[in-house]
Amino acid sequence: MSLEASSAFSMLTHREQLYAYYLGRADWEGAKICLLQCSVESAPIFCLLQLVFSIQPIEQLKANAAAANNGLTKDEISHVIMYAAAFYGNMGNYKSFGDTKFVPALPQDRFHKFLQSATSKSNRAEEVERLWQECHQRMYSLTPRQRQMGLGETKGISTYFSANCAETDATLANAFLDSIGLSAYNTRLFKDPTTGHYTIRIASTETAPPQIPHTPNTHTFQHKTFLLTRGDYSPLLTRTTTALTHAGLYTANPNQTGMLRHYLTSFTTGSIPAHKDASRAWINDTAPAVESYIGFIESYRDPSGVRGEWEGFVSCVNREVSRKFQKLVEGAEVFLRTRMPWGVEWEKDSFIRPDFTSLEVLAFGSSGVPAGINIPNYDDIRQSEGFKNVSLGNVLQASYGVAPDVRVSFVATNDQDHFKTHKATAFEVQVGIHELLGHGSGKLYHQDTTAVEQLRASNVKHPLTGECPIDGPFYKKGATWNSTFGKIAPTYEECRAECCGLFLCLERDILQVFGITGGDAEEEGGILDVTYVNWLLMARAGLMGLEFYTPQTGEWRQAHMQARYVILRLLLETATETTNDEDTNSTTPPLLALHRFIDPEDGKPNVEVLLNRDLISSIGRKVVGDFLLKLHVWKSLGDVENGTKFYNQYSVVTEEMAALREIVMERKEARKILIQPHMCLEPGTTTGGQAIDDDGDGDSDIVVRLQTFPVSPEGMVESFVARFPAEDPELMALYEADKESMTE
Ligand SMILES: [Zn+2]
Question: For a 10 Å CB count at each end of the chain, is N or C smaller?
Answer without folding.
Answer: C
